[in-house]
Amino acid sequence: MRASEPRTESRGAARFGRVAVRALLPCALLLAAGCGHRRYTVQPPARTPGAHTSAPQPAVAGAYVEEGVASWYGEPFNGRRTSDGEIYDMNSATAAHRTLPFGAVVRVTNLQNGKQTEVRINDRGPFVANRIIDLSYAAARAIGMIGPGTAPVRLEVISGPNPETGFFGVQVGAFREQDNAERLKTQLEPRFSPVTIAAYDSPAGLFFRVRVGRVATEAAAQQLAGDLRARGEAATFVVRLDE
Q: Are 102 and 185 in the same domain?
């Protein structure tokens, strides 16, 4: 997204009287937009993020591959802590992703112009429908997407932790008022467990994120997201549980 946009999220429903930054579309729209995944357990040799070329390079065997829309973020996030505890530097080759592990190095190819860059995942997001990665300002500049703000991209994991290991859940909402988050948690707990609330101190203010489940695979989390959508929780995002 553009640097001026807050990277925050909401459930898109107003029955609890909450104040949200923006309503979100169902996760199903991400699939309709052509977002695809291929996951493997082979880890290629380590690479240094930041290098980029003007023409695509061959995909690395054993890499996680995903296609979708990239956005970017700079101010007012510059100088704030990222989800892994680092201080965000918009001039470094980093990025935010919802499910890839921290430390994963990802080759990003702009499918409109063929330009590539390599980034290290150190943050979580974007929590906006139809976007799969938030690039730093430096990474977005390297692939020519500062002006447009977004671009269709291909992601290839080229080194780092195994993307398939860890725990995953489903984020179903983010609220400015903690009482609203607690109310949703109470509604979901009889059918879905565990349900947790995580505080997020964003540049737009403090938000309380409601998350459901703790499963060992992203595929299981996607199934859980489908069950939640069938119940009426339309704005769902599968996330890696880092805590």
A: no
**H-only helix segments in 35-177:** 137-142
Domain-ending residue, one of 159, 176, 210? 159
Per-residue pLDDT of 62-100, as tens digits, reads 479 999 999 999 999 999 999 999 999 999 999 999 999
What pTM, to 2 d.p., does this model score?
0.77
Residue spans of alpha helices (H) in the chain: 28-32, 137-142, 178-188, 218-231
Task: Give the structural domain span for 81.
Answer: 40-159
Asked, for residue 141, whether it belongs to a domain, the answer is yes
Write down the number of H helices and E strands in the chain: 4, 11
Cα–Cα distance measured from residue 98 to residue 117, given in angstroms and rounded to the nearest whole number: 19
**Strand 133-136, strand 36-38: pairing:** unpaired
Tokens of 38: 């291929």
Beta bridge partners of 73: 136
Q: Which residues contact 92 (CB under 8 A, 6 or more apart)?
A: 50, 136, 138
Identity of the residue numbered 213: G
Amino acid at 174: A
Q: Supply 19's token pair.
A: 């104040």
Phi, psi of 10 (to 5 degrees): -150, 170
In a domain, 145, yes or no: yes
Residue 10: inside a domain:
no
Domain of 78, CATH number, reads 2.40.40.10
Two structure tokens written together for 140: 């977005």
Instruction: Report which of 123, 4, 118, 13 is spatially closest to residue 57, judged by C-alpha positions.
Output: 118
